[in-house]
Fold this sequence. Notes:
By secondary structure, the chain is an alpha/beta fold. It is built from ten helices and 19 strands. The protein has helices spanning 22-32, 140-150, 170-184, 186-200, 210-224, 234-250, 256-264, 269-284, 330-345, 370-389; strands spanning 35-37, 39-41, 49-52, 59-60, 67-70, 78-83, 88-89, 92-94, 101-103, 116-117, 123-126, 130-131, 136-138, 289-291, 302-305, 311-317, 359-366, 396-410, 415-427. It has a six-stranded mixed β-sheet with strand order 14-15-16-17-18-19, with helices on both faces. Strands 1-5-6-4-12 form a five-stranded mixed β-sheet, with no helix packed on it. A five-stranded mixed β-sheet has the order 2-9-8-3-11, with no helix packed on it.
Amino acid sequence: MRLLPEPAESTTSSGGLKSPRSLGFYRRAIKRRERRLLTPVERADGTELLVQASRKPVLRDDWPDGFDYVCGHCKKMVIASCVTDGQIWDLAFQCYRCKGINLSPVLPPERALSRCVVPPPGTAEIVNGIDLKRLVLAGQAAVDRRQAVAGAKGATFGRPEPAAPPQGDAKLLEAVIEEVRQLLGPTFDSLERTDRRGRESKTPPKHRHPLMVMVQALRADIATFATGTPAVHVDYLMELRSVLLSLERWQRHPFWSEMVHGLGNENEYLHTVILLAAATYFEDAGNNVEFKETGSDRTPDLFLVLGPRERIAVEVKAPNDLRGPSAALGYKKLREIVKASMKKAGTGHYGQLSREHPAMLVIGSFRTWPSDLNDFEQAAADYLREATKKGKHKHVLSVGLLSLVTMIRRTPTKTDSKPALQMTRVDNPGYEGDIKLIR
């Protein structure tokens, strides 16, 4: 329970001292704090059980606008004092007064789980209460549920490199195409039918869906393996494998159908690929990513959840100019892209990167030219320095260029390649927040 300031003694109109009112003051303050009922159940069923072994709350914190969790059976005993939303997940409590078992909220599968403390399995008696100190306390079930949705951290695209990288032959190309078909399901079949009709039409469409362009190119490559001079569109192969790895990682996410829909929409494809890649990159870097469901209001694409109330807003942009350019774009063009992307995101009250949260802009690039990486760093740095001089973007941590790249490994007998992600990040010298990003 948060301690309130000691009330000063006051005088009567005749100058005498009033009796102290501290006890009543504290009681009224406690009564004013919101109370929420925990879910009453008959038994804990394997959930970590914290037994309230005295009248003191099992958990406590000091949020100025916090609330109390109260036993759902007797509706009187405070189990957790002055906590906040998103601070307690998947735990069971036994009330000191009535001995009833209660469950805390269950972590929804779409919610990110910030770094947290997990109690030991089984039952623990809590006599003096636990000071959460604004940390999250979560049961193992919440941790397992989150990992099932988001995948493991620490490896590129969420999993270690296989011991024997796949060979770039016809079987690999066929397998990649089939995996894309299986993951996208009916969406892939619909795209294929539409693309076939368009190619067979007397007036073929000027633009084809990028997925179908790549699939048809790889099918043509497969045919070359029957000749003496096989050829592979390596960039297309790596992009498809990148899409596959990201899709596989997030396929258990509640927003999976929206992700597939975005990939199937020609106008949303580029943005969806970079969005999934950015989410994967940040998860692998140790952050906790939460997708923001699209609504009527302008909101960021992602949140990086650092604590019960600490989060970083991330907006993703995928300019067409960075879709596999045939030549390096150079400093001037990249400076224009940074400026246009930030303007499109918006950093004002109604922008996707509003001042409500610390923010980061991520610009996606397919097959970035090496010289453009250096030019982007200079362009973004100059843009942010100019914004700092004008007193703008004080809540923006950084601007990043997320590139889909190909890692090549050569040995005396063969050459292997695999997709990877590269983030070129430029910090904002004018950032005035306290929250930092895990790189």
